[in-house]
Amino acid sequence: MQIIVAGAGIVGVSCAIWLQRAGHDVTIVDRAGPARGTSHGNAGVLAAGAIVPVTVPGLWRKAPGMVLRPDAPLFLRWSYLPKLLPFLARYLGYATDAHVDHYGAAMSQLLHDSVEQHRALAAGTGAERFISPEDFCFGYATRAAFEADAYGWQKRKDNGYAFDVVEGATFRDYDPAFGDAFEVVVRCKNHGRISDPGKYVQALADHFVAQGGTLTIAQIDDVEMDGPAIAALRTSQGEMRADHIVFALGPWSKPIAHKLGVKVPLESERGYHIELINPSFMPKAPMMVASGKFVVTPMDGRLRAAGVVEFGGLEAGPSRAPFALLRRQLKRLLPDIEYDDVVEWMGHRPAPADSLPVIGPNDAAGRSYSAFGHQHVGLTGGPKTGRIIADLIGGTTPNIDLAPFAPAKYRSDA
Predict the structure, then answer these.
(1) Residue 370's closest CA among 31, 39, 83, 12?
(2) Can you give the residue ranges of every domain in the chain?
(3) pLDDT of 344 higher than 50
(4) How many alpha carbons lie under 13 Å from residue 6 in its C-beta half-sphere?
(5) What is the pLDDT of residues 27-77, one digit of tens each?
(6) Could you read off the pLDDT of 175-184 as tens digits, one per residue?
(7) What does the H/E/C string look like for 93-110?
């Protein structure tokens, strides 16, 4: 079949490769090219245990204070608040224990084997060199801070995730990079790292093209409808038609999804990173600094500190305060590190109100499919999402309960 995949991030490229391997004629359409957005700028962690959403019980009480504190990892562009409020009300409405359990059960299916899924996706592509199995560590400055996070660790344990809790001094013997910064470190097992997310996705896309796939650089302007189903894409390069169209446009998915009847409440979570180029030393594994909710990841030739959440929409440029916060935090964490330069980046994460990605057919005939909304775990869950979409289009039932991710839950006629 002829299939168009809209979007060239990790999710779109994964869909395209698995569809190509199934024998289909696949075209990727993207306005900028592979990995030009969040798939370039993420923390590079294959976070198999990322099954606890941001919206935990009590968030609605903490969020206002976090927005007002200069050292908190949550930012808000106040001019955007009127537009954000309806989404925010729904988003905070999911901060319940029942939803945390629902989210954890669903996301465990999607994420638990992320390293194996990446290896399968990258096999024979040349991108294998970027994948390494590693612990994902969480560092706590005090034992009290670790104990305050007991809720999340219990939820991971309930879903079968393995982790070791070690004293800071013991961890320092393994990795001295962080000195005495942490009194407690949690080492999550069966996780992984991508040493250069942008180059990784680019290598996958290059392989896709080398195998006969088509990559078209074009702006998607609109969709043409045929009743409840899609008929064509309208792009800056003209009209494009196919047997099936897959939408993996990340935070830019909302207008098209709504036109297709998938009324998902979706916002951009603006994420930031800074990179230290040619640092004088490297940590051994990715570290989530619990106090600042940012991840320090060793990458090829640079050390990346990525994190922070800012609500401010898709149009405004980067804010200075998140960059300044990351610089302060990294200076406190690694006071003796030397480096050649600092690079700053801001990108957009697609955040549905319930934090669950949207995966599956948009209409009864399966003319179009959604594959977006992975929030903080697009890199982790991208390969498996691509395999699921390829199975659905090929008529195979995936070995996963897709109900929590189904676009149909947002349809008014469902």
Answers:
(1) 12
(2) 2-410
(3) yes
(4) 29
(5) 999 999 999 888 999 999 999 999 999 999 998 887 777 776 777 788 899
(6) 999 999 999 9
(7) HCCCHHHHHHHHHHHHHH
∠ CA 410-411-414 to the nearest 5 degrees? 115
353 within 8 A of 43, measured Cβ to Cβ: no
**CATH class, 2-410 region:** alpha beta
Instruction: For residues 83 and 172, give the distance between their C-alpha atoms in angstroms, rounded to a whole number.
Output: 46
Contact of 205 with 28, CB cutoff 8 Å: yes
By the 8 A CB rule, do 192 and 128 touch? no
- The pLDDT of residue 412 is 67
For residue 119, the 8-state DSSP code is: H
Helix, strand or coil for residue 324? helix
Using only the alpha carbons of the chain, give its radius of gyration.
21
pLDDT of residue 363: 94
The full DSSP string for 55-97 is --TTHHHHHHHHHH-TTSSEEE-GGGHHHHHHHHHHHHHT-SH
Contact 357, 381 (CB under 8 A): yes
